[in-house]
Design goal:
By secondary structure, the protein is of the alpha+beta class. It has nine helices and 20 strands.
Length: about 350
C-alpha cells in the first residue's frame, strides 16, 4: 500500500495536537479540538487551513490562455492578469472532471489549483489539450498553501507585511511578502467568509503558519472546512460533483459561459441549459438532532453531504432533488428514523461578503 503524502506543515500540525485522517492520498488534520469551535472561529474572527494537498500547476506560454479557454466552462477573457477565476472542466457529455481556480499572474503565466483527488486526472486532461507554446509544471509538492479565512483574516495578513491583502478586490491575485515569506496571495476561499489564500515555497510554509498562529489565527482542520462549505452550499468533488454530475445540476451556472466560444462539453451543457437540468442541488436543516449521511433520503431526494451548522445550531446537509420538487417542510430518513427537516434554497446562510476591497 502506498504511504499517504504529507504536507510541508505536517510537523506543526502534530505539535498543535492535530488529529489526522487520510484524505485524497494525503495525511491531513481533521481537527485539533472541537470542529464546531474551529468553524466558529472562522465565522467570527480568523481561522486557517492547510490546503497544501490541493494541486498547483504552473502553465506558461503564448498559447496558455487559449488552452484554458478550450478547457474551462468560464470565460477567462472576462477577467485579466492579476485576477483569479472559478471554472469547471468537463467531459464531452458535460460531466464534471473538476472544479478549480485559475490564478492569472501575468499575460502568459497562470497557476491552476486542482482538487487533490483529481490531480492526476486533471494533469492528464490538461496535457492532452495543451498545444502550441505551452509549458506545464506541477508545483504541488514543492509549495505550501494556507487559506486564511474570516472577518479578521485580511487585516492580520496585512499586519504581517502584505499591505496588498487589504487592497485586493475579490478574486484579486498578487505577489507579496508575509512574515518575511514570499507568497502569491489571492482573495479567494472555500468558507463563505472573506479572506485570502497564500502559496509559498514548501520549506517556508511552517514559518508562515506559526507567524499567523502567533497573531491569533486559529488552526482549523478538514472537519471545519466541510461544515463551513456546506452552510454556503459549495459543492465538493465526489459528493456534489462528479463525472455523472454537470455543473448546471450542481448550481454552478454562474461559472458556465456559453456565448461566443467553444470548450469541451459546451454542446452538452447548452442542451441541458435549454432543456432544463433534471435535478438540482438544495440544502436542508433538521429540526431535531441527527447525523445526515450521504445516501440517506431526504424528501424526494438523496443526501450528498451532512454535518452541523454553527450559525444555525442545527444538523444540515446538501441533497439532489428532482428539478420540479417543492421546498419546505419534509423529513430526513436516516438509520431507520424519520427526522423532521426543511428543504431550502442555497446558501443556507447569508454572509454578505463584500465584492470589492
Amino acid at each position: 500500500m502506498t504511504e499517504p503524502l504529507r504536507s510541508p506543515l505536517h510537523a506543526v500540525h502534530t505539535d498543535a495536537g492535530g488529529r489526522f485522517v487520510t484524505f485524497a492520498g494525503w495525511r491531513l488534520p481533521v481537527h485539533y479540538g472541537s470542529i464546531l469551535d474551529e468553524a466558529r472561529a472562522v465565522r467570527t474572527g480568523a481561522g486557517m487551513f492547510d490546503v497544501s494537498h490541493m494541486g498547483r500547476v504552473r502553465v506558461r506560454g503564448t498559447d496558455a490562455l487559449d488552452v484554458f479557454q478550450r478547457l474551462g466552462t468560464n470565460d477567462l477573457t472576462k477577467v485579466a492578469p492579476g485576477k483569479a477565476q472559478y471554472t469547471v472542466w468537463c467531459t464531452s457529455d458535460g460531466g464534471t472532471i473538476d472544479d478549480l481556480i485559475v490564478f492569472w499572474l501575468t499575460p502568459e503565466e497562470f497557476v491552476v489549483v486542482f482538487n487533490a483527488s483529481r490531480r492526476d486526472d486533471d494533469l492528464e486532461h490538461l496535457e492532452e489539450h495543451a498545444s502550441g507554446d505551452v509549458a506545464i509544471l506541477d508545483e504541488t509538492e514543492g509549495t505550501a498553501m494556507i487559506a486564511v479565512q474570516g472577518p479578521d483574516a485580511r487585516g492580520i495578513v496585512s499586519a504581517l507585511g502584505a499591505d496588498v491583502a487589504e487592497r485586493l478586490p475579490r478574486f484579486g491575485v498578487a505577489r507579496a511578502t508575509v512574515a518575511g515569506v514570499g507568497v502569491v496571495v489571492s482573495r479567494t476561499g472555500y468558507t463563505g467568509e472573506d479572506g485570502v489564500e497564500l502559496v509559498s515555497e514548501a520549506g517556508a510554509g511552517p514559518r508562515l503558519w506559526e507567524a499567523l498562529r502567533e497573531r491569533g489565527v486559529v488552526p482549523c482542520g478538514l472537519g471545519a472546512r466541510d461544515a463551513l462549505r456546506m452552510e454556503m452550499g459549495y459543492p465538493l468533488y465526489g459528493h456534489e460533483l462528479g463525472l455523472d454530475i454537470t455543473p448546471l445540476e450542481a448550481g454552478l451556472s454562474f461559472a458556465v459561459r456559453l456565448e461566443g466560444r467553444d470548450f469541451v462539453g459546451r454542446d452538452a451543457l447548452a442542451k441541458q441549459q435549454s432543456d432544463g437540468p433534471p435535478r438540482r442541488l438544495v440544502g436542508f436543516v433538521c429540526g431535531k438532532p441527527a447525523v445526515p449521511q450521504p445516501g440517506d433520503e431526504v424528501g424526494p431526494g438523496i443526501v450528498t453531504s451532512g454535518g452541523t451548522s454553527v450559525v444555525l445550531n442545527a444538523p444540515i446537509g446538501l441533497a439532489f432533488v428532482p428539478s420540479g420538487a417543492s421546498l419546505g417542510e419534509d423529513s430526513l430518513r436516516t438509520r431507520g428514523k424519520e427526522i423532521p427537516c426543511e428543504l431550502r434554497k442555497l446558501p443556507l446562510i447569508d454572509r454578505g461578503r463584500p465584492t470589492k476591497a
